[in-house]
Amino acid sequence: MQQQVKVSRGRMGQYEVCDFVLLLLAYAVSGVATLKEFFIQLSSVESVVLSVWQRQQCPVASTVSRSLSAVEFPAVEQLRTLFKADLLEHGFDCNHNGGLLDRSGQRYWVFDVDGTHQVARQRSVSQNETYPALRRRSQAAVRPGYLGRKRGEGIRSRSAVSQAHTTEWLGTFGFAGNGTPGPDLDRACEAIQHYLQHYGLSGDRAIVRLDGFYGTPQFVNRMQHHQLGYLLRSRL
């Protein structure tokens, strides 16, 4: 991670990409709602966590925020590639990664592909000519889109794919606004096919369970194109 993932910044200081990724991984498994609350809880065990990670300094919240804003798409893809390789190298073997048996004894692997919308509430601010131009911190992360039954001014869409038996995380793709569910589904299917190929399995041994905004018939053609089995819960 320190040698293969490059983030272009004017000043990186004493931190590396690894420092920020470790913090975000800890935040992801902590169950805390916001980064602000996470840093408050981290302060009491910071020295212990850093010793386990073998790191010298822990970035503060403002440093993490500035560093994340500098991360571009190529760096994200490099991280994604590393995480996929690590999962396949250190994950469960084919005999212990689950499976679903039918009546004839055939074994299938179930994968979840879930698409969700997260609504962001934005407070009202004055746009008088005497004030500077409006700039929101979340303007790059959210855009206007379909809100459903939720209240808000912007949304962010996310597609996630996981192995249902072991809950192994195979990928997640997020975009501002309504997102790109079609291309995201193609990327999810490619991740599933790569997972199956690693274990020497064919596509007819996979069952992809589609949920969220993938519950419409328009995505059936994409699943048939990738030659994967699917189970779709229609929301129409």
What can you tell me about this protein's structure?
It is a single chain. By secondary structure, the protein is an alpha/beta fold. It folds into two domains: 17-89, no CATH class; 93-232, no CATH class. It is built from seven helices and six strands, in the order αααααββββαβαβ. Strands 1, 2, 3, 4, 5 and 6 form a six-stranded mixed β-sheet that branches. A hairpin with a 4-residue loop joins strand 3 (154-163) and strand 4 (168-176). It is globular. 14% of the residues are buried.
Summarize the SSE layout with pairings.
Layout: H1 17-30, H2 35-42, H3 46-53, H4 61-70, H5 73-90, E1 100-101, E2 107-120, E3 154-163, E4 168-176, H6 181-198, E5 206-212, H7 220-225, E6 229-232
Parallel strand pairs: 2-5, 5-6
Antiparallel strand pairs: 1-2, 2-3, 3-4
CA distance, first residue to last residue: 43 Å
Helix content: 25-40%
Structural class: alpha/beta
Elements, N to C (H/E): HHHHHEEEEHEHE
Q: What is the domain total for the residues?
A: 2
Number of strands: 6
* Helix run count: 7
The proportion of residues in beta strands is 15-25%
> Unreliable stretches, pLDDT < 50, 5 or more residues?
none
- Which outline best applies? globular
**Radius of gyration over all CA atoms, rounded:** 21 Å
Mean pLDDT: 84
Q: Characterize the biggest β-sheet.
A: 6 strands, mixed
Question: What are its keywords?
Answer:
single chain, 236 residues, alpha/beta, 2 domains, six-stranded mixed β-sheet, 6 strands, 35% helix
